[in-house]
Structures are given as C-alpha cells and as structure tokens.
Amino acid sequence: MDRLEVYTDGACAGNGVRPQAPGGWSAVFSDGRRLSGGEAATTNQRMERTAAIQALRAVPEGAVVTVFSDSAYLINAFADDWFSGWLRRGWRNSKNEPVANRDLWEQLLVLARRRDVQWRKVRGNAGDRWNVEADRLAVEAARQVGAARVSG
Hints:
By secondary structure, the chain is α/β, with parallel strands linked by helices.
C-alpha cells in the first residue's frame, strides 16, 4: 500500500484574544482531496485537533499515512508519547492539571491506533506549499463560519 500524506491545520479568528471565536480546520491530501469545516465558538487548539481527527477519519483503518502539522503540541503528543503519562495519571498532564480538550485527544488516539501513522512537524508560514494551502483553507472555513454567525 502506498503511503498517503496529509497536511492539517486549524485557525481561529481572534485566537489569543477571545476565549471562544469562529474557527476552521482543513486537511490537504496527497491524492488531491481537500476537507475543511469549522465551528462558531471554538479555539485554535480545538481546530488543530479537529483537523487531524477529520484527516484520519477520511482514510481507512490500517492505512499508512503521514500527517504533517505546524502544531508542535499535536506532533509532540505523539512523537514523545505524552499519552502514556496522561493515561497513567487519569488524563492529567505533568502539572497535574486536566488535559485540555480531552474529548478530542481521546478520539484522535483511537483513530491513530487503527492506522499506521507517522507524525511530522512542519514550520508554519515557512512557504511549504501544502501547509500554506491547509492554512488558507482553515482560515477560509473560519471566515465562513464567522460570517454565518453574524448574518444568522
């Protein structure tokens, strides 16, 4: 089976300024597929996780896939196996605080375990063609959700 590659990204309007704002996510696949969506009230971290979840949902179980992301948090959680500690501590981080966005991390962990996934960090806004495309789609999805919220 050929290795599939997917670039994921999340975006959130007002990230770091407002606790809940319109957000978008995207996944750009090496086979040409593009997925995106958004939420009216979310955070950038939730959108980064949602992008990876939706990407993995779009490939069959057992698939061989490389996920590229500019989210160090996402990549490091897998590369450094943070899950083992989180699970051992009852979904608490190294500071003994609840792991944020546990609901998404749990989904992501199940999906990743059912596929042969390699996680790769890319530098955001560094000119990588597919990372730039994923960012553009995520930002556009956030804009669309925000516009619908304002007009709805």
